[in-house]
Amino acid sequence: MSVVLKTPAELEKMRASCRFAASVLDFIRPHVRAGVTTGELDQLCHAYIVEHGAYPAPLNYKGFPKSICTSVNEVVCHGVPGERRLAHGDIINIDITTILDGWFGDTSEMFTVGEVSDAAQTLIDHTREAMWLGIKEVAPGKTVGDIGAAISEFAKQHSYGVVEVFCGHGIGREMHMAPQIPHVGKRGSGVRLRPGMTFTIEPMLNQGTALCDLLADKWTAVTRDRKLSAQTEHTILVTDDGYEVLTMRASAWRPADARV
């Protein structure tokens, strides 16, 4: 599958969908609290998305039954919302993908429920930092291997497992397009980046092993050792001189030298 470069007019459509996807994370933030179920979070997000004239891309995608993904504690990604009730000390990734005017926007964020352990908070902080190290590698002439190398080098310095079975992906008129964006890599290898490319960077770091198991629902991936996992995600545009974070929002963490 070849990489599709977006025109300026198409990029405006992408920006609108990505901004909207990011707004869903701000909307749901005050609802992430002890006692709420992941199914209730899904219902709230679904209503917000459709009320704003968009569509939740995960719903019915290859049979996925819900509108968002909710990945709690040991869940690496693709957690199916349901009866799981959040408790104090939990960490949760909420993954939002929206379709607006035919274009996709994709982003996710980590939330904490009450006070969490120092180790859990450090995992979240390091996952955000790892994502941004990958983002800052994005520029014309760089490669997808540069992105993965930056993420995996940092993560391994802190003794985290870097999940390899799931990766970032191109995005535009489809949710998953070329190129794939692995979160491990060799510098200078893989697809070379060009202006107009749009893709996600969404590393998953585990406290222990990088290995995952798939639960009986065939969607929910969990750490094999059942230790904590964290993930953050942005949709990125390759510009003429670097990158643009299409899903950036004012409340999101970013390093001091970030270009937003």
Describe the structure.
With 260 residues, the protein is an alpha+beta fold. It has a single domain (8-245), classed as Alpha-Beta Complex (Creatine Amidinohydrolase), CATH 3.90.230.10. The chain contains four helices and 15 strands. The protein has helices spanning 8-28, 38-51, 118-135, 144-157, and strands at 55-56, 69-72, 75-77, 91-100, 103-112, 161-162, 168-170, 177-181, 198-201, 204-206, 212-214, 221-223, 229-231, 234-238, 243-245. The strands form five sheets. Strands 1, 2, 4 and 5 form a four-stranded antiparallel beta sheet that branches. Strand 14 (234-238) and strand 15 (243-245) form a beta hairpin. The longest helix has 21 residues, at 8-28. The protein is globular. The two termini are 29 Å apart. The model has no long low-confidence stretch (mean pLDDT 97).
Features:
260 residues, alpha+beta, Creatine Amidinohydrolase, 4-stranded antiparallel beta sheet, 3-stranded antiparallel beta sheet
